[in-house]
Amino acid sequence: MSDFEPMLSGNQSLCTKFTFVAFSSLEELQIVLFIVFLIMYLFTVGGNLIIICLIWVTPSLHTPMYFFLVNLSFLEMCYITSVVPQMLVHLLVETKTISVEGCAAQMYVFAILGLTECCLLAAMAYDRFVAICYPLFYTLRMSPSVCLKLAAASWITGVVVESAQISWIFSLPFCGTGKIEHFFCDIMPVVKLACVDTSYHEIVIFVVSMLFIMSPCFLILCSYMRILLSILRIMSATGRHKAFSTCSSHVLVVSLFYGTALFTYLQPKAAHTPNTDKATALMYTVVTPALNPVIYTLRNKEVKEAFHRVTHRNPLR
Questions:
Q1: Which residues of 191-210 are buried (b: 16+ CB within 10 A; e: fewer)?
Q2: What is the pLDDT of residues 43-84, one digit of tens each?
Q3: Secondary structure of residue 316 in the 3-state scheme
Q4: What angle do CA 156, 160, 166 make, to 5 degrees?
Q5: φ/ψ of residue 13, rounded to 5
Q6: Helices marked H in 233-313 — which ranges?
């Protein structure tokens, strides 16, 4: 079967496949890139699996904060898996193609997980807000049922919003060479391949991004403003340090995730270039997920202590 099928217009054709050309100019480095990205992928998946198992077997970590961390770790494993394995295959083969249906499936998974992470980070900020600002009511306000509802709301929001948006994007006709200046099916590089004027679609995508990326970000900022005010009212330096330490890991993860997300999806169309898009995409698809396990182990005293206890009671460590 050819890569294109006839379209209504005589000199145009509908794409049935897309071709990734992100690394076409780096042929001599593709083996090196394959090794680097494979190591980062295995490290990310392994690190997040360790966090999940560690929390699972440690009763003292069965708290709302670590319930959300388990969700985040699982999400990060799925997030990086939606992009990196295919990228690794394409670094080893000459034909770097994907069907339109496969591209849609990848974008569904990636976009749903991305928005779910936005909402989940907001839920984690709310958890820290209640723990520090209303410690006496923490067990009541962050009961298991409340935690389950917050996590479920995060996943449902991601699935509903992004399923509608991606379905709408793939209702567009795609034609031309089918070459994507990227290493996976990200939203804007794919929209650029449409045969029709996409100005309206790009405006809607921008508005949706503003609403559903900035709303959780606004909630996180409000939570941490209240947290900061509460911490500053603590008289003892030890108390302030302890309160700050419970939030530091989350603040770092939020900064990494939202820094790249805001730069990618909320910058003007004129500012988008293939090179900057690829660089920021590598940050939020590969680098940031790889850093999260490091942040939550090296900067979290409870996790480090639990890891120490588990490894020292296991003779095969």
A1: ebbbbeebeebeeebbebbe
A2: 999 999 988 998 898 888 889 989 999 999 999 999 999 999
A3: coil
A4: 140
A5: -145, 145
A6: 237-265, 274-282, 288-298, 301-312
β-pair partners for 18: 98
CA-to-CA distance for 132 and 147, rounded, in angstroms?
Answer: 17
pLDDT at 3: 43
Distances (CA, A) of 99 to 3, 86, 179, 190: 9, 13, 12, 12
Beta strands 179-180 and 17-20: pairing type?
A: parallel
pLDDT for 11: 53
Name the nearest CA neighbour of 96 among 86, 111, 106. 86
- Residues in the chain predicted with pLDDT less than 70, given as ranges, are 1-12, 25, 265-272, 274, 298-299, 313-317
Q: Residue 26 has which token pair?
A: 């780096």
CB 293 within 8 A of CB 73: yes
